[in-house]
Design brief:
The chain has two domains: 131 residues, Phosphorylase Kinase, domain 1; 199 residues, Transferase(Phosphotransferase) domain 1 (Transferase(Phosphotransferase), domain 1, Orthogonal Bundle). It has twelve helices and twelve strands. Strand 3 and strand 4 form a beta hairpin. By secondary structure, it is an alpha+beta fold.
Length: 377
């Protein structure tokens, strides 16, 4: 499933309630009433909910009961992904990532994660309404994405599935286009390569190939440079209205990421000097070799800063986090529940919690590498 308002805007339910969905209308731990379905995925669902103590609207991600799993034989594999997403989401504490409010289990077996309810639309929905966003708006959105990645990478977290569906543009507030990077369901926690490799095949759907780095397409190790490449693809799409590589056969897109140089940037009406600055940045971001890309997402944010208007620079400076990043040291160990204060994000060593909502599974990892080799003949 593509990520329908993944962490939830306030729209009407995305689809009719499944008659087997015993969670709709339930109250979790006496604290959260599930009011409407926002989106349903392979491993669970996201609900619009109400926090009963004060009536606050929230988004609740709920793990699917075993009977609703699309593939129950892969329950353990899905569970590890839930755990991975939860560690990442609870650890992240940044204005450009989604805020965790609470977490726990329902009836002792169904895990849930409570997050802020986002109002707005995904970057995918925004891009569908126009052909390119222009330089100023692209810079405003991309700087925030780069800062979110800088924060995540500082915690040894690599997203691995950055795409417009996973970037939310919030409505309201003082900042136009306040960005939230979301859906850390297939993150890699650096320093745990074996487990990360085992989880690769629950990773990308075929639709994600448009944003996949060359190292992902050839089943090589990933790192921060992987997210930086995907950010470059999205910047190209925000400027031109189209990703750099397109083909009727989705797997040919993977071949193009591996072998083809990106097309020269062409944005009607853009000043040649400004276009040249964007082109220089994109050439670095979309380099086939990881070592030729910017080493840190913070470098990308700094390179984008001159493209911002003075007003955007001022507003985005006020949005910077105040505290230092805290590193993830281990995977969660045992179940717990409770509202998530700031300390919960740093003391994750004994947390055993799995959250929810994943994408449909496609060909990835070694299987994708084989298919790419076959298509190349």
């Amino acid at each position: 499933m593509a990520d329908p308002a993944d962490l939830g805007d306030a729209r009407a339910p995305a689809d009719p309630a499944d008659p087997r969905d015993r969670m709709l209308g339930a109250t979790l731990r006496g604290a959260y009433r599930l009011d409407a379905i926002i989106g349903r995925g392979t491993m669970g669902a996201v609900y619009r909910a109400t926090r009963l103590r004060d009536g606050r609207p929230v988004a609740v991600k709920v793990q699917a009961p075993e009977g609703l799993l699309s593939d129950p034989s892969r329950r353990d594999e899905f569970r590890r992904r839930f755990e991975r997403e939860t560690v990442a989401t609870l650890t992240l504490d940044h204005p450009n990532t989604v805020k965790v409010i609470d977490f726990g289990t329902h009836e002792g077996s169904v895990s849930f994660l409570v997050l802020e309810l986002l109002r707005g639309r995904t970057l995918r929905e925004l891009l569908a309404t126009r052909r390119g966003l222009g330089s100023e708006r692209t810079a405003r959105i991309a700087v925030q994405m780069a800062r979110a990645l800088e924060h995540a990478h500082g915690l040894d977290i690599v997203h691995r599935d950055l795409k417009p569906e996973n970037v939310f543009i919030c409505d309201g507030g003082d900042l136009p286009d306040h960005v939230k990077v979301m859906d850390f369901g297939i993150v890699r926690l650096l320093g745990k390569p074996a487990e990360a490799t085992q989880l690769t095949r629950v990773g990308h759907s075929l639709g994600t190939l448009a944003y996949m780095s060359p190292e992902q397409a050839t089943n090589r190790p990933v790192g921060p440079a992987t997210d930086i490449y995907s950010l470059g693809v999205m910047i190209h799409e925000m400027l031109t209205g189209r990703p750099p590589f397109e083909a009727a056969n989705p797997l040919m897109i993977a071949v193009m990421h591996i072998e083809n140089a990106p097309p020269p940037l062409a944005v009607p009406g853009m000043e040649p000097a400004l276009m040249a600055r964007w082109q220089e940045l994109l050439d670095r971001l979309l380099s086939k070799a990881e070592g030729e890309r910017p080493r840190r997402a913070g470098e990308v944010a700094r390179a984008l800063t001159p493209m911002l208007t003075p007003g955007d620079r001022r507003d985005l400076e006020a949005l910077r986090p105040t505290g230092p990043a805290r590193r993830v040291r281990s995977a969660p160990r045992e179940a717990t529940t409770g509202e998530a204060p700031a300390t919960a994000r740093s003391g994750l060593g004994r947390l055993w919690l799995w959250a929810v909502l994943a994408l449909a599974v496609g060909a990835t990892g070694a299987g994708l590498a084989w298919l790419v080799a076959w298509l190349r003949g």
